[in-house]
Write a structure and sequence with these properties.
Number of strands: 3
Radius of gyration: 39 Å
Strand order of the largest sheet: 2-1-3
Length: 247
């Protein structure tokens, strides 16, 4: 059976009523969900930086190990050259070996200098890691407090939200896909989440711009779905003055 325009408008109004209740429920949580997400992103950033510094320290320590190996190799060569010096036949061979020993001694000095510089860089990075970890621990405490506060609020409203979500699914099932798409799009673009409104005191219930009398008459007839020419919200009906007074 084809759904009439009045039935479509009634279904949209019911869906809007439920969505507005859900919005109010979520509003109680305030900025807490966003604050929790921001803190989680901040912690992830700190952990990434710590991981990066630790990887750099590992590379630097590998350089230190390579330089120490270089020192040992040079010491072995020096020992070898010193033994050779004892068996030289002339001064020329002695001086040539002496130069090789001197070269290896310079290499040792260079390796040791590099290691002192690297050690300084490692210590600096370790200090930076300690500083970041200190901030990280402080923000972890903040996150735990925010999460506990949010969980408490969510726990209080879980059953109500679950019931409203169930009602919403039921209401949405009565609305055709094309109309549902338009409804969701208008809600997303709306600051107050209103996609379907009444005309109250001659004005749109969403943007409060005046609705001409002839357009109000068309809305009352409910022969077609009419939207506000200013904000695009669906104008479901016109609220008469007596209804306003009664409410």
């Amino acid at each position: 059976m084809e759904i009439t325009v009045p039935q479509k408008l009634e279904a949209l109004l019911e869906l809007q009523r439920i969505d507005s209740q859900i919005d109010e429920l979520l509003k109680i949580r305030g900025d807490l969900p966003e604050e929790v997400r921001d803190l989680e992103d901040e912690l992830a950033g700190y952990e990434t930086r710590i991981g990066k510094f630790k990887a750099e320290i590992d590379e630097l320590q590998q350089e230190v190990a390579n330089n120490k190996a270089g020192v040992k190799e040079s010491e072995k060569l020096i020992k070898k050259y010193q033994e050779q010096q004892n068996n030289v036949r002339n001064n020329r061979e002695f001086e040539a070996i002496a130069k090789e020993i001197e070269s290896q001694e310079l290499d040792i000095q260079l390796f040791e200098k590099k290691n002192r510089e690297i050690q300084f860089r490692i210590e600096k990075k370790n200090l930076e890691i300690e500083e970041i970890e200190s901030r990280l621990n402080g923000r972890i405490a903040d996150l735990e407090a925010k999460k506990a506060e949010l969980d408490s609020i969510v726990e209080e409203s879980t059953e109500d939200e679950k019931e409203l979500r169930s009602q919403r699914d039921e209401a949405a099932s009565k609305i055709e896909e094309r109309l549902m798409y338009s409804y969701n799009r208008i809600r997303q673009n709306s600051v107050n989440g209103l996609a379907v409104v009444m005309v109250r005191r001659g004005a749109c219930g969403g943007c409060f711009n005046q609705v001409p009398p002839q357009r109000q008459a068309d809305i009352r007839e409910k022969k077609k779905i009419i939207v506000c020419e200013h904000c695009g919200r669906v104008l479901a009906d016109v609220e008469v003055l007596e209804e306003v007074k009664a409410k």
